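[Discussion] Sanity-checking designs against the backbone

I'm trying to build intuition for which residues belong where. Below is a C-alpha cell string of 446 positions. I'd appreciate it if someone posts a full sequence so I can compare it with mine line by line.
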C-alpha cells in the first residue's frame, strides 16, 4: 500500500514523537495553551507512539512483585488527550530538511501494514531511551530488563515459573540455580527490583511445600561503593543494611562480567549458577537520534535554554533525547521523569509563544527530591534536602507516586490494590505475554 501524506494546509502541524512523561506532558500543555487555535482549526497536534498507553514506570517493580495489576499502571492515551490526535505506530525516519516524519502502522505481520508521511511545522523529539547492555558477553541475549510493562510481567512470570519448577521433586538437584536471581545495578530501578523480588519470593513460599527460605537467593550487584549514590552515603548505607537484613546479598564494587543461560560471572571471578539476570544498568540514546543532522552530546540532541535545537527552528527535544545544560551547575539536567514533565510543559509554552510571536521562556528546574521503595515496607527519600528512611519514607513514596499517577480511576485502582495487599497473600498466577522490547522512558516522577 502506498504511503499516505498528511498536512501542508493552512493549519500549523505540531508533531510529538514519543508517549512517555515528556511527550504526554507536552501534548496536554499544548492543548491548554492552544485551546482556541485548535478549536478554530488553526493548529493540529499529533502524538506518535508505539504503544497506545502511557506507562507509569516508577511502579513497574510492583507489577513484577504481584502487588499491582499490570493494567493499573497504564493510561490509554486516547483518554489523556482531549483535542490532540494520536497515531499508534512505529517511527521509521525523520527528515528535518523536508520537515516530515515517516511512520508505519497496521496489524502486525499482515499485508495491512502501511506507511504514512506526517509533515510538521514544529517537531518535539522525545522517543525515550533504549537498554544499554554494553559489550558484556551474553548479557543482551540472556538478561531480562525492567523498562516496559512486558518486562515487568515477564519477570513476574519467570519468578513464578522458577518456583513451580523448583518445587517439583524431579528438579530438586537444580533448585540452587533456579532460585538464584541476580539484579545488576544499584540505582533506583535495581534496588527497587531486588527488594520487590525478594519480598515476592519469600511471600510466595507458603504455597510451595518443598521449598524453604534457604533455597531462595537474591543477589544485588553494583559497581559503585554505595547503593543509590544520588541520595548520599547515609541513605545508601541504610539501604544496603536493610536489604541485607531482608536476605538480599549486596555485592558492591562488583560488575557482571559475563552471562550464560545457567551461569553468571562476576568481575571478582565468582561464578554464580543462576538462570535469571535482571539488567537495570544504564540507558542508551534512542537509535533515531543518531540519524539526525543536528549536534549531539553523548548520543543526545543538544538544545538551547529554550529546549529548541540550534540551527533547526521549530525542532525541540526533551527527556532522554535531549542534552540540556544547567546554567547554574554547568552540568546537564538528569534525564528523569520529574525533569521531563517540566520540560514538556516548557516546550509547549515555547511552541505557543513561537506561533504567537511572543518571547520564549528558558527551562529552569532543580530536582525536588528522589525516593525509593527498598522492600519490607521500607523506603528511603531525600525531599527538599531532608532525608527520610524506613516506614515513613515508604509511605511517602506511595503517597507521592499515587498523587502523580494520571487520572482518578487509576489512582483508585492502585490504592485498592495496595489495600488488598495488606490482607491477602501474593498472587502466583502466571500471565502470558509476548517477548518484551527493550525500549522505555524515564523513571523518577516527582
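Best answer:
Here's mine. Compare freely.
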Amino acid at each position: 500500500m502506498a504511503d499516505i501524506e498528511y498536512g501542508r494546509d493552512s493549519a500549523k502541524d505540531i508533531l510529538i514523537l514519543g508517549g512517555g512523561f515528556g511527550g504526554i506532558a507536552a501534548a496536554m500543555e499544548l492543548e491548554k495553551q492552544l485551546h482556541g487555535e485548535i478549536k478554530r482549526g488553526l493548529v493540529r497536534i499529533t502524538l506518535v507512539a508505539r504503544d497506545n498507553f502511557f506507562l507509569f514506570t516508577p511502579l513497574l517493580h510492583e507489577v513484577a512483585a504481584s502487588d499491582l495489576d499490570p493494567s493499573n499502571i497504564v493510561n490509554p492515551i486516547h483518554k489523556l488527550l482531549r483535542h490532540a490526535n494520536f497515531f499508534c505506530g512505529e517511527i521509521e525516519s525523520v527528515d528535518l530538511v523536508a520537515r516530515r516524519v515517516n511512520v508505519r502502522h497496521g496489524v502486525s505481520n499482515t499485508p495491512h501494514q502501511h506507511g504514512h508521511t506526517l509533515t510538521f511545522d514544529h517537531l518535539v523529539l522525545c522517543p525515550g531511551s533504549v537498554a544499554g547492555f554494553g559489550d558484556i558477553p551474553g548479557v543482551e541475549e540472556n538478561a531480562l530488563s525492567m523498562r516496559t510493562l512486558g518486562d515487568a510481567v515477564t519477570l513476574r512470570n519467570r519468578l513464578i515459573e522458577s518456583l513451580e519448577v523448583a518445587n517439583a521433586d524431579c528438579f530438586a538437584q537444580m533448585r540452587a540455580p533456579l532460585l538464584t536471581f541476580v539484579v545488576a545495578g544499584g540505582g533506583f530501578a535495581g534496588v527497587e527490583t531486588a527488594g520487590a523480588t525478594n519480598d515476592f519470593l519469600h511471600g510466595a513460599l507458603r504455597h510451595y511445600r518443598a521449598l524453604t527460605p534457604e533455597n531462595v537467593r537474591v543477589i544485588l550487584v553494583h559497581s559503585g561503593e554505595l547503593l543509590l549514590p544520588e541520595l548520599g552515603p547515609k541513605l545508601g548505607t541504610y539501604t544496603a543494611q536493610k536489604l541485607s537484613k531482608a536476605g538480599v546479598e549486596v555485592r558492591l564494587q562488583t560488575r557482571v562480567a559475563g552471562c550464560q543461560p545457567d551461569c553468571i560471572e562476576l568481575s571478582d571471578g565468582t561464578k554464580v549458577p543462576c538462570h535469571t539476570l535482571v539488567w537495570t544498568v544504564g540507558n542508551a540514546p534512542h537509535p533515531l537520534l543518531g540519524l539526525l543532522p543536528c549536534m549531539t552530546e553523548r548520543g543526545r540532541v543538544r538544545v538551547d535554554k529554550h529546549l529548541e535545537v540550534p540551527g533547526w527552528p521549530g525542532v525541540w527535544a526533551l527527556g532522554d533525547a535531549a542534552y540540556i545544560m544547567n546554567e547554574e551547575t554547568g552540568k546537564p539536567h538528569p534525564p528523569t521523569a520529574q525533569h521531563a514533565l517540566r520540560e514538556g510543559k516548557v516546550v509547549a509554552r515555547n511552541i505557543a509563544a513561537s506561533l504567537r510571536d511572543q518571547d520564549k521562556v528558558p527551562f529552569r528546574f532543580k530536582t525536588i527530591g528522589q525516593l525509593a521503595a527498598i522492600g519490607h515496607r521500607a523506603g528511603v527519600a531525600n525531599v527538599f534536602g531532608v532525608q527520610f528512611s524506613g516506614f515513613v519514607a515508604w509511605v511517602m513514596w506511595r503517597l507521592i507516586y499515587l498523587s502523580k499517577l494520571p487520572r482518578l480511576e487509576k489512582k483508585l485502582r492502585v490504592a485498592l490494590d495496595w489495600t488488598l495487599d495488606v490482607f491477602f497473600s501474593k498472587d502466583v498466577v502466571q500471565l502470558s505475554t509476548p517477548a518484551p522490547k527493550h525500549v522505555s522512558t524515564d523513571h523518577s516522577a516527582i
